[in-house]
Design brief:
By secondary structure, the chain is of the alpha/beta class. Helix content is 32%, strand content 19%. It has a 7-stranded parallel beta sheet, with helices on both faces. Helix 5 (148-157) packs across helix 6. One of its GO terms (molecular function) is phosphatase activity.
Length: 290
């Protein structure tokens, strides 16, 4: 340990015995959308081997089975986690309550599993009362500015946006790409109402604790849980709102804010990032490892 406000640990082992369960972010922590992070997979597996429970919690706008298939394709074994909870899971539950309300989808075709098997009244955005936003249609080239002509009229008409992924950006390989949260932010600028499904909002954490109770065979109280993530406005803020401790993974979407001389993590910069937080992370790691 150091005398810094946020201790920068060499790995997660020192915290393993303190918490009965981890709620672990996926993109940017366990993989980058292209390859798995071996150190993170090892840490999760070792934590579970020691009796801990792991729920992977992601703002991906697809249901858990689709994310499990993606994890398998990236070589992440199911022995590294107990359950997956997604923003898509929460969004599907929301969609079951809208009846035949006219709805339009903005997002890529890969998000089709979100609505598979559902009977919804789809229409064009200019006729919809609900805009289901799962992301940009082509996040490799598009930006939120490309959607202004669609979003502004919808906001003026009073359509509500369901944002199925509150992330603004996510790491894919070495690049950062825009997510549905970026479009939701623009929609709010136009005066539109947005209902968010994932982190840092309460419904996804409520679902996580339901899954933990099923896994553990008992109620897991919030003081027993550690949230692990790299997003300050999603993982860390969400943990604080949910009343759980957090471990900040500094080698993620905010890594440039942490690096000092020689591209090494700077504990002073890390402290500065959280100087106004009354419940900062209990520690940080530069990449999740054991």
């Amino acid at each position: 340990m150091t005398n810094h406000r946020i201790p920068l640990l060499p790995g997660s082992r020192a915290l393993a015995g303190t918490y009965a369960a981890w709620l672990c972010d996926v993109w940017g922590v366990v993989h980058n959308g292209v390859a798995a992070f071996a150190g993170a997979v090892d840490a999760l597996s070792r934590y579970r081997d020691g009796g801990g429970h792991v729920v992977l919690v992601t703002n991906a706008p697809r249901p858990a089975p689709a994310i499990k298939a993606q994890l398998e394709a990236l070589g992440i074994p199911d022995g590294a986690y107990d359950a997956v909870v997604t923003s898509g899971d929460v969004t599907r539950e929301m969609l079951t309550r809208i009846g035949d309300t006219p709805i339009a989808h903005i997002g890529p075709t890969r998000d089709q599993p979100l609505i598979d098997g559902m009977t919804l009244n789809f229409t064009d955005p200019d006729k919809a009362e609900i805009i289901l936003c799962t992301g940009l249609s082509d996040d490799t080239v598009e930006t939120p500015d490309d959607y202004a002509d669609i979003l502004a009229p919808c906001a003026r008409r009073g359509a509500t946006m369901f944002c199925a992924n509150p992330d603004v950006v996510v790491q894919r390989g070495s690049a950062l790409v825009y997510c549905a949260g970026a479009l939701a932010a623009e929609y709010e600028k136009f005066g539109g109402k947005v209902v968010y499904s994932g982190k840092p909002h309460a419904p996804i954490y409520d679902l996580c604790f339901t899954r933990l109770a099923e896994i553990a065979g008992r109620e897991v109280v919030r003081s027993e849980v550690l949230a692990v993530g790299d997003g300050m406005k999603t993982d860390i803020l969400g943990a604080r709102r949910a009343g759980v401790a957090s471990l900040y993974v500094a080698d993620g979407i905010h890594r440039q804010d942490v690096l000092g001389a020689g591209d090494a993590p700077d504990p002073a910069r890390l402290d500065a990032m959280f100087k106004h937080e009354n419940q900062p992370p209990v520690a940080a790691v530069f990449g999740l490892s054991w």
